[in-house]
Amino acid sequence: MFVSNQCDRESRCAKEEVFGPFVSIHPFKDEDEAIELANGVQYGLCASIWTESVSRTHRIPSRLETGMVWVNTWLYRDLRVPFGGVKDSGVGREGGKRSLEFFSEPMNVCVRYAE
Q: pTM surpassing 0.85?
């Protein structure tokens, strides 16, 4: 895992969806600024919140523009639940019942029988 606290907030490593093991760390003054930082990118696959506050656990996820939110964990997932992002991180969901729809091509067949 590569951890950096040297990335400028406008740099590629802070603004792009980096698949690594890589994380950039950015300081913030308050909750509103943290949410602004998180939503200020064109991607939205997932987010992770680390907190001891139960109220923060319930409050923040609805303000994030992301497909998934983990609280006090990372990549902990039940394969029966939907997986996917928003914005430029993808369209649709896979996993669970949604996989059946996502990976299926429905077909309508209409037949008229002569009497």
A: no
